[in-house]
């Protein structure tokens, strides 16, 4: 229990409040909403790097037998860091929501209340539901229902965090008014690539690996797995598909906007030549 408190309940909130103290000293013109947003994104990136590293270690260590091979990180990372982080992140997202609307001058956001909490849950319902699902599904599965099997697949789930640093970097670049630079565009491509590979394509890959282990075709794997396993995977995968569609739409809008900006100088030059 002391390890849980030291590793999770102290590390992530501690980093968050440290960034909230440091960032205003560096960016003096930032509002509270800006500081909270960037602090939340930085802590998310740190957790994502930790989770991805743990995932690589677990997956590479359990490739011999994806069902029976064990690695201690598959269980203890969830207990020490995964659960405390998800709990903290709900609170951090609420703070970001609160300060964003407070800066905009909303009357209800002069102080914390049940109304501000309710507004946050309604506006960020899918994210909150996603976090709660991980807490109520991943934790019990990891601790109680796996019968000490499947560490490989838990490591694969850790790898879903690979896209988070790129998502966070995009928001930080926008905060720094660098959304027109090449780095933001390149990062947008990495967001789409890593999100698709590690949050969507990863699930059929895990089904395929499971089928290879038992010598069954991919289409038969869902019928070979317990119903709860398929439901759990569906609950995790469904919001990822929804968010990926939103990312693609946003990327397409940005692409169209950049194309229109690139073509406008040409049009201006053409108009000037006609006037001459």
Task: Note the main attributes of this structure.
single chain; 276 residues; mainly alpha; 12 helices; globular; disordered C terminus
Molecular structure report:
With 276 residues, this protein is an all-alpha fold. Helix content is 80%, strand content 0%. The chain contains 12 helices and no strands. The protein has helices at 2-9, 11-26, 32-61, 73-103, 114-123, 125-145, 151-158, 164-175, 182-199, 202-214, 221-224, 227-275. Helix 3 runs antiparallel to helix 4. Mean pLDDT is 87; it is low at 266-276.
| Total of DSSP H or I helical runs spanning 4+ residues | 12
Q: What overall form do the CA principal axes indicate?
A: globular
Order of helices and strands: HHHHHHHHHHHH
CA radius of gyration is 22 Å
Please report the distance between the alpha carbons of the first and last residues.
79 Å
Outline of the structure:
By secondary structure, this protein is mostly helical.
Topology record:
Blueprint: H1 2-9, H2 11-26, H3 32-61, H4 73-103, H5 114-123, H6 125-145, H7 151-158, H8 164-175, H9 182-199, H10 202-214, H11 221-224, H12 227-275
């Amino acid at each position: 229990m002391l390890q849980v408190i030291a590793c999770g309940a102290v590390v992530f909130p501690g980093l968050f409040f440290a960034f909230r103290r440091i960032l205003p000293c560096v960016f003096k013109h930032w509002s509270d909403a800006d500081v909270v947003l960037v602090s939340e994104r930085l802590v998310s990136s740190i957790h994502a790097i930790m989770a991805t590293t743990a995932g690589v270690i677990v997956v590479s260590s359990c490739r011999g037998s994806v069902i029976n091979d064990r690695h201690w990180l598959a269980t203890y990372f969830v207990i020490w860091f995964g659960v405390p982080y998800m709990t903290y992140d709900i609170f951090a997202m609420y703070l970001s929501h609160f300060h964003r609307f407070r800066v905009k001058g909303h009357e209800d956001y002069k102080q914390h209340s049940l109304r501000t909490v309710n507004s946050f849950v309604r506006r960020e319902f899918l994210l909150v539901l996603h976090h709660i699902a991980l807490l109520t599904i991943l934790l019990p599965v990891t601790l109680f229902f796996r019968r000490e099997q499947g560490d490989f697949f838990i490591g694969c789930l850790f790898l879903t965090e690979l896209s988070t640093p790129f998502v966070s970097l995009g928001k930080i670049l926008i905060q720094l008014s660098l959304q027109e630079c090449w780095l933001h565009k390149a990062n947008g491509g990495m967001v789409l690539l890593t999100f698709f590979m590690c949050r969507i394509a990863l699930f059929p890959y895990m089904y395929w690996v499971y089928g290879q282990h038992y010598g069954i075709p991919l289409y038969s794997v869902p019928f070979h797995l317990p119903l709860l396993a398929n439901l759990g995977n569906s609950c995790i995968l469904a919001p990822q598909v929804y968010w990926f569609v939103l990312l693609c739409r946003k990327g397409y809008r940005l692409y169209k906007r950049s194309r229109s900006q690139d073509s406008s100088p040409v049009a201006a030059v053409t108009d000037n030549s006609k006037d001459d």
